[in-house]
Prior knowledge:
The chain has helices spanning 2-24, 72-75, 160-165, 169-178, 185-196, 202-215, 219-233, 238-259, 264-269; strands spanning 27-32, 35-40, 45-46, 50-51, 88-89, 95-96, 104-106, 109-111, 121-122, 127-128, 142-144, 147-149. By secondary structure, it is an alpha+beta fold. The chain folds into two domains: 25-149, no CATH class; 157-269, no CATH class. The longest helix has 23 residues, at 2-24.
Amino acid sequence: MKKIKLVLFLLICTYFNVIGQKHSNVEMRYIKSRAEYKVPLDRFYLNHAIYSNCFLKGGIYEQISIDELTYISNEIVAGLRLSLGVQFFVKTGKSVPYRFSVSIIENGKNDTKGLAFLTNYNPQNRCFEETCQPYSYASACKIYENKVIGGIFTLDMKDEEKFLNNNDHLSLLQLYIFNGMCDDKSKMVSLFEKAEQKEGDKINCHWLKSFYNLYQRNFSIAKKELTLLKELLKTLPLEKQNAWHSAIAVLEFEIDLLQNTDSETTMHNTRYIP
Length: 274
C-alpha cells in the first residue's frame, strides 16, 4: 500500500513539475501598489524578442478586478505591443490608460536586471513615484539579453484642455499619438511645427514623429526621424545620450517588426480608442 501511495505521489509530482516547467520559463509580473500577480505566458516570442499573441490576465488597475481585464490575445483593441503604449480595454469597452511595471521571470528566478519599473505615474510632477525617473519614454523600456522588456504610459484625455491653455504642444502630441487620436494630419503637422520652435523640444519632436509615422505605417519616415534624433543626441552630454539608447533600440525593433509582419489589425485598431 505504501509503495502504491509512493508511486502515486511521484506521478503527481512529475505531472505538476512538467506543467509547471511549461509555464515557468516566462512569466510577466504586474505590480499594483504592493499587490503582485504572476501570470504565465504562452507563445510569448515572435522571432527572438517580442511579445505577440500572448494572453494575460491579472489585477492591475484600480477599480479593475482580475476577471474584468480582457485577454490580450485576440481581444486587444489598441496599441502597438507593450513598448509602444498599449492600452487595455475591459469587457465594457472602457479604456484603462494606467501604467504598470513589467519584469521577466525565467526558470523561477525573478531577474530584474536592466529593468525600469514604472508604477504610479504622477502627472503633477511628471514622474513615476516609485522610481522618480523624469517623464520620458526612455525610462519606460529596456532591452535585456535580446528580450524586449516593456512598460507603458499614456496621458489622460481630460488633460487636453490644460495642455491647450498652456500651449504645451509637445504634451498635446503625446496625448494624441499615445491615445491613437492622430488621424487629423493637418492638426498634427501644425502641432509638430509649433513644438519644434522650442529649442529644447526638438529631440522629443523627432522621437514623437517616429512614433507618429509608425502608427501611420510610414516606416521609412519613422526610420528617418530616428536617424535625425541620433544626430541631435550627439550634441548632448554622454550621460543624456545613454538614457535614450534603450528606448531607440526598442522603437527600431518595433519598426522592423511591423514592417515585416502583417499588423493591419493592430494598426487599424489604434484609431478606435474611445
